[in-house]
Amino acid sequence: MTKTFSAILHNQKSPALLLCLVLGGYFLLYFNRYAPITEGWFIAFAKLMQSGQKPYQDFELLLPPLYTLQTLAFREIVGDNLFWFRLAGLPVTVGIGLALYKILEVFFDRWVSAFAAAVAVTTCALPTYSALIRPSSLARSWQSNFASWAAISFFSSASA
Questions:
Q1: 66 domain-assigned
Q2: Number of structural domains found in the chain
Q3: Is the Cβ–Cβ distance between 71 and 144 less than 8 Å?
Q4: Are 134 and 39 in contact (CB under 8 A)?
Q5: Enclosing domain of residue 122
Q6: Does 11 map to a domain?
Q7: Reduced to 3 states, what is the DSSP secondary structure of residue 160?
Q8: 142 phi and psi angles, rounded to 5 deg
């Protein structure tokens, strides 16, 4: 083993960096090539909320309103261009993978955790909507992964 390869293997941040590169590259391969049937729904819901209508009262919203509120805030910044909404999925996708990596790292070796997170995000989290980008699913996955990681971190530090 060369010194450079050995240094990479023993660097604490290498698995997380490689995970970011793999997930980012995978995401960029398809993020602007497909359009799910629900494309733009949440932008329309955000427009309704911006016009003063209330979810569950004035229009049907089948999910909790957090993602719609996030969409509304992002829409204020970038407008209605779907390209920017799709591109916003890049940090969300990488965030899901990193949150899962941090959870798995508590129980497994860091390289195994990075590999498992990459496989899980590319084969399980993204295809739940037929390999098409549905930011609401990505946001929910990221939020649940982050909550799990925060709980594990809290209870690990509390018991130490």
A1: yes
A2: 1
A3: no
A4: no
A5: 23-159
A6: no
A7: coil
A8: -65, -45
Residue at 30: amino acid letter: Y
Answer for the pair 117, 97: CB distance below 8 angstroms, yes or no. Answer: yes
Sign of the torsion angle spanned by Cα atoms 158, 19, 112, 12: negative
67 assigned to some structural domain:
yes
Distance (Å, whole) CA 64 – CA 5: 47
Closest CA to 16 of 118, 120, 108: 118
Token pair for 101: 């990596």
Tell me the whole-structure pTM to 2 decimals. Answer: 0.62
Give the tens place of pLDDT for each residue, 118-142. Answer: 888 877 655 444 434 455 555 556 6
> Is 14 within a domain?
no
Q: Per residue in 53-93, pLDDT tens? A: 888 888 888 878 787 888 888 888 888 777 887 788 788 88
pLDDT tens per residue, range 22-49 = 888 887 777 766 666 666 777 888 888 8
Q: For residue 159, what are its two tokens? A: 């018991």
